[in-house]
Amino acid sequence: MANKNTRVEARNPQGNELHVSHTELDSPVLDVNALERLH
């Protein structure tokens, strides 16, 4: 099963930070750890 992980981090001059993380799975079934992170 292949996973595609994308992570973006940005900071503006005022010091505010933005973190975005996305994981795309070939399988429609999420593992237990992924389900726990959603709650």
TrEMBL record:
It comes from the Bacteria. Residues 1-25 are annotated as: Disordered. Residues 1-10 have a biased composition (Basic and acidic residues). This is Uncharacterized protein. It comes from Cardiobacterium hominis.
